[in-house]
Design brief:
The protein is mostly beta strands and 127 residues long. The protein is built from no helices and eleven strands. The protein is globular.
């Protein structure tokens, strides 16, 4: 049974940092992604990381988080991380981890690309 379990969310002041973790069990995936959804808004792409070899991965970011967020993966632990720095109130949302067996492609920013999802973790940034 495949499971994605997120952790690391919480309340932080603007300018602060948080690190989200997503532990996968049941199988390994080529691509992991983070999405977020704020109240009343659609789920939006944040970042993705796609493994191209045993030692090489490529990462992708939404323009709104580029330079502030960093995605990484530990293949030995089957875990993906999202380091979030310089947080802003507009980063407040529920953050979801997602996984796909295929490499990142032109549709990698679409939620429908991903077969598996975590339960979400709340991130709240106060001003």
């Amino acid at each position: 049974q495949v499971q994605l379990v997120e952790s690391g969310g919480g309340l932080v002041q603007a300018g602060g940092s948080l690190r989200l973790s997503c532990a996968a069990s049941g199988r390994t995936f080529s691509t992991y992604a983070w999405f977020r959804q704020a109240p009343g808004k659609e789920r939006e792409f944040v970042s993705a990381i796609s493994r191209s070899s045993s030692i090489t991965s490529y990462s992708y970011y939404a323009d709104s988080v580029k330079g502030r967020f960093t995605i990484s993966r530990d293949n030995a632990k089957n875990t993906v991380y999202l380091q979030m720095n310089s947080l802003k109130p507009e980063d407040t949302a529920v953050y979801y981890c997602a996984a796909a067996p295929s490499p990142y492609s032109g549709v990698g920013r679409a939620p429908s690309t991903y077969d598996y999802w975590g339960q979400g973790t709340q991130v709240t940034v106060s001003s």
